[in-house]
Design goal:
pyridoxal phosphate; 4-stranded parallel sheet; TrpB-like_PALP; about 350 residues; TrpB-like_PALP_sf; binds 4'-deoxy-4'-aminopyridoxal-5'-phosphate; 10 strands; alpha/beta; 6-stranded mixed sheet
Length: about 350
C-alpha cells in the first residue's frame, strides 16, 4: 500500500506551470475532507421570519461527516504512536464511519477491518470492499457477553492482530475534536458570525457537542445548540423502541451516554416523529432539490421548528450528515416507506 502524509499541507496547493494559474489542485483525497458548502433553504422556510441554512456533509469524499472523524482519529493515533505505520484499524460499524475509515486507511497505508451487521446494504458492502476494507459479520442483537456481539468480535480481531488499533468512535475524543476544529469554525466563518442556532442529529454526539462547543466558545455562549433525536431513542424523553432513522439515536439506558456526547453543551433536545422526518426528506428533494439522508431530514425538521419559535431574523444552521443516494432503496422507495407505515 502507498501511504501519504496526513500532516496539514495548507491545501489546496497553488498550481504552477502547465496546470494553469486559475485551477485548484488538491494534493490528495484527504485534503478534500471538510470545508463543505452551506446552502440556504428557500421553499421550506417560506413565510418564516428566520433563515435555515444547511451544511452539506455529503460533499465529503466518502459521502458523510464521518470522513472528518476518520481523518482526525487516524491522524491523532498516528501522532501519539498508538497506531504505528501499517497498523490495522478495527471498528464495529455498519455505517458511514466504516466508509470514512476505509477511505482514509487506504490513503494512509493502514489495513481496515470493519465488523458489520448481517443487514448491511449491498451498496455499503460494495463501497467498503472497493476501498479495500476486510468485512467481518457480527450479530447486532447479541448481548455484550455473547462472542457474536460486534464489539466482542472487533475486540477479538484486534487481540489476534499484532499492531492493530481500535478506533472506538463512541469513546474517542478525536471524534468531537474533529468538529470543534473543523465543522464549528467553518460554520462561524461561512455565516460571518451571524449563526444564532445550531442543530445536529445525535449519534455518537460528536457533531453536536464538538461543533456546538466551538460555537458557544466563539460567541460567548450566545449560540443556542439543539440536538435532534428520533422516536425510539433514549436521548429524548420518549419511550425506547425501534429507531428507523439511520445512524442516530440511542438504544442505551436513559442515564447512559457515550463519552463523545457532552450533554452540557446542549440547550435542548427535540424529538421528531418518523412521519415528519421522512416527509421532510421528501420535501427537501421535491421542493429544494436537495437529496439528503434521513438524519438530515431529522435535523432540518428540528431546524424548521426552531426557526418558527425563534426571534425574527434568527439564523439557524442544520447539519446534513450525508446525501440521499445511500438511501434509494429505503427513504426514497415507496414500498419501503409503506412497509414502515409511512406510505402516504
Ligand atoms: N447521521 C448519520 C447518517 C450518521 O451516520 C451519524 C453518525 N452515526 C450521525 C448522523 C450522527 O453524528 P454524530 O455521531 O456525530 O452524533
Amino acid at each position: 500500500m502507498t501511504a501519504i502524509d496526513l500532516r496539514p499541507t495548507g491545501a489546496p496547493s497553488v498550481p504552477t506551470g502547465e496546470v494553469g494559474p486559475t485551477d485548484e489542485v488538491y494534493d490528495s483525497v484527504a485534503a478534500l475532507v471538510g470545508n463543505t458548502p452551506i446552502v440556504e433553504l428557500n421553499a421550506l422556510t417560506a413565510g418564516l421570519g428566520s433563515r435555515v441554512l444547511v451544511k452539506l456533509e455529503g460533499r465529503n469524499p466518502g459521502g458523510s461527516s464521518k470522513d472528518r472523524i476518520a481523518l482526525n482519529m487516524i491522524r491523532t493515533a498516528e501522532a501519539s504512536g498508538v497506531l504505528a505505520p501499517g497498523g490495522t484499524i478495527v471498528e464495529a460499524t455498519s455505517g458511514n464511519t466504516g466508509i470514512g475509515l476505509a477511505l482514509i486507511g487506504r490513503l494512509t497505508g493502514h489495513p481496515v477491518v470493519i465488523v458489520h451487521s448481517s443487514d448491511i446494504s449491498a451498496e455499503k458492502r460494495t463501497v467498503l470492499a472497493a476501498y479495500g476494507a476486510r468485512l467481518v459479520e457480527a450479530d447486532w442483537e447479541a448481548d455484550p457477553s455473547d462472542p457474536a456481539n460486534p464489539r466482542a468480535v472487533a475486540d477479538r480481531i484486534a487481540a489476534e492482530t499484532p499492531g492493530s488499533w481500535r478506533s472506538s468512535q463512541f469513546a474517542n475524543t478525536a471524534n468531537p475534536d474533529a468538529h470543534y476544529q473543523g465543522t464549528g469554525p467553518e460554520i462561524w466563518r461561512q455565516t460571518a458570525g451571524r449563526v444564532t442556532h445550531f442543530v445536529a442529529s445525535i449519534g455518537t454526539g460528536g457533531t453536536v457537542s464538538g461543533a456546538g462547543r466551538f460555537l458557544k466558545d466563539v460567541s460567548a455562549g450566545e449560540v443556542r445548540v439543539i440536538g435532534a433525536n428520533p422516536v425510539g431513542s433514549t436521548y429524548g424523553d420518549g419511550a425506547a423502541g425501534r429507531i428507523i432513522v439511520d445512524g442516530v439515536g440511542s438504544a442505551w439506558p436513559r442515564d447512559y451516554w457515550p463519552e463523545t456526547f457532552d450533554r452540557a453543551i446542549l440547550d435542548a433536545v427535540r424529538t421528531v416523529d418518523d412521519r415528519e422526518v421522512y416527509n421532510t426528506v421528501r420535501r427537501l428533494a421535491a421542493e429544494e432539490a436537495l437529496l439528503l439522508g434521513p438524519s438530515s431530514g431529522l435535523a432540518i425538521a428540528v431546524a424548521l421548528q426552531v426557526a418558527r419559535d425563534a426571534a425574527p431574523g434568527s439564523v439557524v444552521v442544520a447539519i446534513a450528515p450525508d446525501g440521499g443516494v445511500n438511501y434509494l432503496t429505503k427513504a426514497y422507495d415507496p414500498q419501503w416507506l409503506a412497509d414502515a407505515g409511512l406510505g402516504d
